[in-house]
Amino acid sequence: NIYVSYTTVGLLPSCWKGYDSVDIVVFGNISANELSQAQRIALIDWIYSGGILVVSGGANSHNLKGTFIEKLLPVKLGNIQVLKSLKSLSQQFGYDINMFSSVIITSSELVKGSSAIVTADNDKIIIAERIIGSGKCVFLAYDYLDPAFRSWKGNRYLLSKILPNAIIRESDISNDLEKLLSVNKLPIFTSYKPIG
Predict the structure, then answer these.
(1) Dihedral sign from CA coordinates of 57, 63, 65, 69
(2) Quick one: which of 118, 64, 54, 62 has its CA closest to 91?
(3) Which residue of 59, 139, 152, 164 is surrounded by the most CB atoms within 10 Å?
(4) Angle 11-155-116 from CA coordinates, rounded to 5°
């Protein structure tokens, strides 16, 4: 099961053990500079010990530039671009995205040791990942809070790709993820599963 919790940056743990029951942390439209030094170290230590950080790009990706988060990303950030569609995302995960208008993505290029999960026309990176210790950092070039992605049925399969050992039911996605994507806070996925 997926249990979604919301928090603010100020309430993030300052010790990596504070993430003990957490499988994945998703950073959306926040400034990474809001985290204290202790919170930064805790997050990095948690990733190295097996945590998964998902970072959303899009129109506000400038908030990532020059931060400690940028150094963890599987990509080197570029400028924003406007795409009319993301057919490759639909093809990869089996569901069309109801595009109300164009989507803004962050252009990027892979850093050494990273891999692209989904690319669009002309090899634009849409989703990429980088293994960091026993964990990883996943970059979404789009803003997951964009209305086109809030109710996208492919989210279930995207999460399965990011969390390969999780069993994700349709009800998990339709309830918790819909809540997750409609609230502009820092979401944390927890599973309360034993580690080991």
Answers:
(1) negative
(2) 118
(3) 139
(4) 90
Q: Give residue-wise pLDDT tens across range 29-67.
A: 777 788 899 999 999 999 999 999 999 998 888 888 889
Residue of 111, 183, 136, 180 whose CA lies nearest to 23: 136
Interatomic CA distance for residues 45 and 14, integer angstroms:
10
**Per-residue DSSP letter, 159:** H
Span 123-151, average pLDDT: 88
Q: Where are the extended beta strands (E) located within the chain? A: 3-7, 22-27, 52-56, 75-83, 103-110, 114-120, 124-132, 135-140, 186-190
Q: What does the alpha-carbon distance between residue 186 and residue 180 come to, in Å, rounded to a whole number?
A: 9
Alpha carbons 163 and 146: distance in angstroms, whole number: 22
Q: What is the pTM of this model?
A: 0.81
The DSSP code for 58 is S
Pairwise CA distance, residues 81 & 196, whole Å: 41
Mean local confidence (pLDDT), 164-189: 46
Residue scoring higher pLDDT (191 or 35): 35
The order of strands in the sheet holding 186-190 is 3-7, 186-190, 22-27, 52-56, 135-140, 124-132, 114-120
